[in-house]
Every structure is written in C-alpha cells, then in structure tokens.
Specification:
Zincin-like; alpha/beta; single chain; 4-stranded mixed β-sheet; 6 helices; 235 residues; elongated
C-alpha cells in the first residue's frame, strides 16, 4: 500500500492511501480526528487532495471538537504572538522558534499530537515570559506613578495559582500568564498588588484604597475568576 501525508491549512493532516482493487475515492474521519483518503492505485495523489478540499465543510463538521487548551494554527498567545504550524514530513523532530510576532512550530507530526502540543505550550510560555518582561514592568510603573504608589522591585515568573503577589519589602511578583488576560484585568491585578504595598491584608482600608484606584473592582474581580493561568487557544 502506497501512502502519503499532506497538510491542508483548513483541515490539518490528511493521509492519502492507494490500494489495489479500490475503484473510487473514499473519505473517512476517525473518532480521533484522523482524516483518510482512499485512492485507486492508478490515481494521482493530487486527486485525493482536491477531493479533500472539495469536502472541507463536511470534514470540519466531523472532526472532534477541540478542548479549551488545544492550540491550533493561528491561535493567539499573549498580546501579539500567533502560532504558526508548519508540517514537514522530512523533519526528524519537532522544533519551535519565536520569530517577530510568530511562534513557529515545525514537525513531521500533526499539531494535534500530544508531543507537538506539549512543545507548543512550552514555546508559548517562553513567548509569554518575554512579552510580560517587556510590557508588565512598564505598565506597573505607569499605574504606580498615576496613583502615587511606591514599590521596590518587580519580577516576572510562572505562578500556578496566583496572578501576582507583594512582599513586606514592597517587592512585586507578577505571573507571566497575565498576558493571556484582557488589559483591564491586567490593570486590576497590578493595582491590587500596588495597594498591597500599603496594606498587606484585605482589610476595609485595603478595599477602600483599591476602589479609589480602580472603580468597579468588585465586578472585575468576579470576571477574573473565570480565567486560569494556562495557555489556551484564543481566537
């Protein structure tokens, strides 16, 4: 059996198989999302590719739904990065690069493969760390100056369950996953930590100062609970 794998941007990986005895072009989508085109032995692979393109809508309807954490071609990561997947059957391994505003994933495996998704997430974290290092200290300084807060240091790191923290020495730590949030929620977290430079608690005085710096804080706080510090696919 002769076989060839191709990548179509709107569909993904397609396996083209030639079988003796097959008279017609056949299309199937497995429960795992594997798209196969069966071809007569005499038919060119291009015929299978064209057939798949002509059935794009049907294929997309029968592909399994992606989970929230599934990264796809074109997924936005942070404020400026887009994931760009390049299928290369000659590649010996999956590689990742940050080029301008593109997070490039090159692999001989489909993007849906767990190992490729893992590589994409790790590269995405590098992109978020780099972007957060450029943008968050600058924004923190702006908000501190505007609202008359003072802090000593700021550092960026990966945090599993918190968006930020403030030490008794006025050192602020910010989670680089903040870059996945809308800017109004980023400002909420930054101002929350700045208020902690005055009040290392959540007393009534803390909330009073916070409400002055960020009107409508309670509503934003409720919305923030819908987000988690993870990389996910943002259209």
């Amino acid at each position: 059996m002769a076989q060839k794998t191709v990548w179509l941007p709107e569909i993904g990986e397609i396996v083209l198989s030639k079988r003796s005895g097959t008279k017609n072009i056949r299309l199937s989508v497995s429960a795992a999302g594997k798209v196969r085109i069966g071809l007569p032995a005499w038919a060119p692979y291009a015929a299978g590719v064209n057939f798949a393109k002509s059935r794009t809508d049907w294929i997309k309807q029968h592909l399994p739904a992606a989970t929230d954490n599934y990264l796809n071609h074109g997924s936005r990561i942070g404020k400026s990065y887009r994931l760009s997947y390049i299928f290369d059957p000659g590649a010996s391994r999956t590689s990742t690069r940050l080029v301008a505003q593109s997070l490039r994933i090159t692999s001989h495996l489909p993007l849906s493969h767990p190992s490729v998704q893992t590589a994409a997430v790790k590269a995405g974290e590098r992109a978020l760390r780099q972007e957060a290092g450029l943008l968050l200290p600058r924004r923190l300084a702006q908000l501190a100056s505007k609202n008359n807060f003072e802090y000593k240091t700021v550092r960026i790191k990966k945090m599993v369950s918190r968006w930020g923290s403030c030490s008794s020495h006025k050192g602020i730590t910010l989670n680089f996953f903040l870059m996945q949030l809308p800017w109004e929620m980023i400002d909420y977290v930054l101002l929350h930590e700045l208020v902690h430079t005055r009040h290392l608690n959540h007393s009534s005085r803390f909330w009073s100062d916070f409400d002055q710096a960020y009107p409508g804080a309670k509503q934003t706080r409720r919305l923030l609970k819908q987000y988690r510090p993870v990389i996910n696919s943002v259209a």
